[in-house]
Design brief:
The protein has 168 residues and is mainly α. The protein is built from seven helices and three strands.
Length: 168
């Protein structure tokens, strides 16, 4: 690890994984050159160990809007419209949450609430599928949560709700 001045600019040189790394920092400041050397070494270490920076996880509202725009650009127009209308009630409920903060319990509570307001089971299932599809590229854990055993399907919830209504 060495930083030295050559023709008015600082350079750094170090050995990494059997190779000699020698590059210009293109600066006249020794402190900046030392920082550039540390950053370059750190980037090489992360790269060789396949460690990547985690993605920034957006709010559900932002993720859903990006997803709708992407679907409109790559799919038929009606597919984009379907996702737009399926995600609209989800954005009202989960819009202020981070995508990774949506738990299976939140999804189940949402499905139950939608069914008790009189929405058909088909609609609730479409909305749940849209939620899963929109959040899968960002956080794969949400997809697993949607398929977990603790999340009851909308058809089962609808069947329970209709039997309760008949009993009363």
């Amino acid at each position: 690890m060495s930083v030295y001045k050559r023709r008015g600019a600082y350079w750094y040189e170090f050995a990494f994984a059997g190779s000699r790394i020698r590059e210009s920092t293109k600066t006249n400041s020794k402190r900046l050159a030392e920082e550039a050397e540390r950053k370059r070494r750190r980037d090489l270490e992360l790269g060789i160990n396949r460690i990547t920076k985690p993605k920034e996880i957006p709010l559900f509202k932002i993720a859903a809007e990006r997803f709708i725009q992407e679907k409109r650009a790559r799919r038929a127009r009606n597919t984009g419209e379907l996702y737009k209308y399926a995600l609209k009630p989800l954005i009202k409920v989960f819009g202020t949450k981070l995508v990774c903060d949506i738990s299976p319990a939140d999804i189940c509570a949402y499905q139950t609430r939608r069914l008790t307001t009189g929405v058909s089971a088909r609609t609730v299932n479409i909305e749940a599928g849209a939620l899963r599809t929109a959040s899968t590229p960002i956080v794969s854990g949400v997809r697993l949560a949607m398929r977990s055993k603790c999340c009851v399907s909308a058809r089962m919830l609808a069947a329970r709700w209709t039997t309760k209504m008949r009993e009363n």
